[in-house]
Amino acid sequence: MERVLRIASDTLKSVAKELAAEGFDHVKSLTGMDRPEEGLIELVYHISSYLNPALRGRIVEVRTEVDRSRPIINSISDVFPSCRYMELETRDLLGVKFEGNEEPDPLILPDELKNTWPLRKDYKIPEEGVE
Amino acid sequence: MRVKELGKDRRAETITLFIGPQHPGSGHLRLVVELDGDVVVGIRPDIGWVHRGVEKIAETKKFVQVIPLIERPSIIDSANMNVGYVRAVEKLLGVEVPDRARYIRTILCELNRIASHLYGIGIFGNMIGTSTIFMWSFGDREIIVELMQELTGARLTYSFFLPGGVKGDLPDGFEEKLEKGLRYIENRIPEYNALFIENPVTEDRLKGVGVIDREKAVEIGLTGPNLRASGVEYDARMAGEYGAYKDLGFKPVTRPEGDSFARLMLRFDEIEGSIGLIRKAIREMPQGPIMHERTKGMARQVLMKVPEGEAFSRVECGRGELTFFVVSKGGDKPHRVRMVTPSFRNLIGFETALVGHRLADVPTVYGSLDYFPPEADR
Amino acid sequence: MGQKKERVILLGNLENAVRKVGTRLADMRPIRNIRNWGITFSLWPVPLTTACCGAEFAATMSPRFDMERLGVLPMASSRQTNVLIIEGTLTRKMAKAVKIIYRQMPEPKFVIAMGSCAADGGIFWNSYNIVRPKDVLPVDVFIPGCPPRPEAVIRAIMQLQDKIKRKLKYRMDAKERPRKRTRRQRVSRVV
Ligand code: SF4
After folding, report:
1. Are A14 and A46 contacting, i.e. CB atoms less than 8 angstroms apart?
2. Highest CATH level, class, for C45-76+83-169
3. pTM of the prediction?
4. SS3 of C95, please?
5. Would the N or C end of chain A have less CB density within 10 A of its end CB?
6. Best substitution site from C48, C50, C52, C114 to test ligand 1's pocket, by max atoms within 8 Å of Cβ?
7. Which domains are seen in chain A, by residue range?
């Protein structure tokens, strides 16, 4: 990765706006990672550009962390609409609340799994192997 | 016709229509359509009917066992899915793929792209009521599937690329068969033109329907053929991070219109482009090993421990750009595998493309976006 | 006809009585055989691509394997169909929809579960979001494989046809419960 930005969670929106002003125009991926030992959920945005020939193909990695017990962060879907569904998915699977991008129903989980966050490390599923 | 045009004083201004989840498309998606008369004023896709938790299950499997798993979401495009994951693991391992393996990867990926586009075109034909095209393209797809089966041993799920190289070399006499198959597909394209594309019915139903202009397409982050049909010249193959695209001089095709017709035509253009790439790859293929020394042999693959780190990879699938973010904690199982699939990124296109069109255009736009639900839901 | 004579008691209004007699008649040997033969070659599945196996099912419909020669023709609406082919994994969300679709289908109806996922989870056995179709629906035929080859799908269709030819008992009214039969009668019906 050519450029990695580690930022505090409350500056995410202003960083996103700066990147947008620089010419970055879409979010390629949004990854949420649970880190229970440190009590954090890490969010990794990969942002890139389609139109700007100088930036095309370059990817900026923006990393930020939210508290695991109170995972709330500003949504950047008004700056980059392309990450709207990714934010909703992260909300479903990791329980991160994106302020400004809220929908009552879960996006991909069924209703009965609402508010269980499968991608958190303490959500156990059976594994292969001899017991 | 909008309700108001019939006169005012209607109690119901708009109605909400639920389309799906069971419908004759490919896989399941429910569209919640807000209708004013028969004009679409709002649309909300409801996904998750095929969500199987691939990302979670990947954390319980060894690195090499994840390969079949991440192929399943887009089974008709499995080689391209496979190469994306394998590239990420290779970056973590720090191994470079031998040249011959890169060329073999390119050939299989491009073959799979042709098959995947033919699948999409067939489903599209079915959706707009031209079942002849469904039959044709599925019949023609079998030729490509047979070729891939000859190379890898499976019809759809190849798991042919392993970290460090490919599983096997081209079989004897494969080049001739490949050339024969490609020539057949090439000769078929004019027939599709005559029957389907230059057909006034198709043109009337597709031209100007579901337009996504250049700025909008970039803003909502469309990807793949849908993006290029809106005139944006971007293709993950251009970066040359995988396969032999850099050596082969790959150039993406674009179309400026951004409507359903352009999206359909772009798929045909890409089939032709892929045929050209495969021919060139066969001609220029170097000799040499097909697997890196450090990952050779089944035992090394299965017992592979991947050093701690993170890797991001992107590849161009049939439906668009696929990105993988793989995190390893130094064990034999990945700590986190994140895949953002092209269909998931194209999902937002429904909201943009359909508003203002008629209800009868919903299947047209659905088909032209080439949306594959298992891929989006994972 | 080695069948024991059964007495029919007709009570209630005329319509019910006629319906009951019709059911009985349609269940007698020669009529039943002809009817089963007819059903055998008009198996119309619902297009229900629940997951990736749908790609192989679509290939089975394609000219190379051509399921229509066996009388299998997908219909767009579940009201016109009599076979439900579960093409792969069934998620929790989809299982509810599948139940509704199954209830919409007219009798007699059959279920084929395609793919290892539909049999017992397959590669997704430890997923948090799948159900086993056998817990939800009465499955007639399972097709193993991930994904099963089109030849396997055709074989499953032929097995189902075989099953129908030999065993099917007609139920004119979906609500009517099958009568209790003695063991001897059941044997005579099956063989
Ligand atoms: S059996 Fe295999 S191909 Fe079929 S749905 Fe399951 S994973 Fe997909």
Report:
1. no
2. alpha beta
3. 0.85
4. helix
5. C
6. C52
7. 3-113 (3.30.460.80)
